[in-house]
């Protein structure tokens, strides 16, 4: 199967291909969150799980969930904004398919499936 979409970490940068557009983005927590969501379409992932996977710290239970939600949402939005300067089509795609809250999800579409290679 040929992939039109790729997100792969290569050292301190991520190589991203979307519909033929290729660009690189410096590593950061937000891009790691996006990569994880893209590799797990339609799966709701708790923000706390994303946060701890990318190096967030753990604190008290109630405040930790809210802190994780805010941190993950902020980092995902910042990464999409960076992507928008390099590939507006991908930023639009992500903005319409990524949902954040106490859990995050990359929504697949049965009419327009998008497979990501990592």
Structure in words:
- With 118 residues, this protein is α+β, with helices and mostly antiparallel strands.
- The protein has one domain (5-117): Arc Repressor Mutant, subunit A (Orthogonal Bundle).
- It is built from four helices and seven strands, in the order E-E-E-H-E-H-H-H-E-E-E.
- The chain has helices at 29-38, 47-53, 61-86, 88-97; strands at 5-10, 13-18, 21-26, 45-46, 98-99, 103-106, 116-117.
- The strands form two sheets. It has a four-stranded mixed β-sheet with strand order 3-2-1-7, covered by helices on one side. Strands 4-6-5 form a three-stranded antiparallel β-sheet.
- A hairpin with a 3-residue loop joins strand 5 (98-99) and strand 6.
Radius of gyration: 14 Å
Distance between the termini: 14 Å
Provide the CATH top-level class: Mainly Alpha
Main sheet summary: 4 strands, mixed
Would you tell me the overall average pLDDT? 88
Task: Report the portion of residues in β strands.
Answer: 15-25%
Strands of the widest sheet, in order across it, are 3-2-1-7
What's the CATH architecture name?
Orthogonal Bundle
Overall tally of structural domains? 1
Total beta-strand segments: 7
Q: What structural class should be given to the helix and strand makeup?
A: alpha+beta
Total helix count?
4
pLDDT < 50 runs, ≥5 residues: none
SSE order, one letter for each helix or strand: EEEHEHHHEEE
Helix content: 40-55%
Coarse morphology: globular
Look up the CATH topology: Arc Repressor Mutant, subunit A
């Amino acid at each position: 199967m040929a992939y039109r979409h790729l997100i792969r970490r290569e050292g301190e940068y991520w190589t991203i291909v979307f519909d033929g557009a290729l660009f690189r983005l410096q590593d950061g927590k937000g891009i790691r969150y996006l990569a994880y969501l893209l590799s797990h379409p339609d799966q709701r992932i708790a923000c706390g799980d994303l946060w701890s996977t990318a190096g967030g710290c753990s604190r008290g239970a109630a405040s930790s969930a809210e802190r994780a939600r805010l941190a993950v949402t902020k980092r995902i939005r910042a990464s999409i904004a960076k992507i928008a300067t390099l590939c507006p089509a991908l930023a639009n795609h992500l903005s319409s398919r990524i949902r954040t809250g106490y859990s995050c999800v990359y929504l697949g579409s049965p009419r327009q499936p998008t497979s990501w290679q990592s």
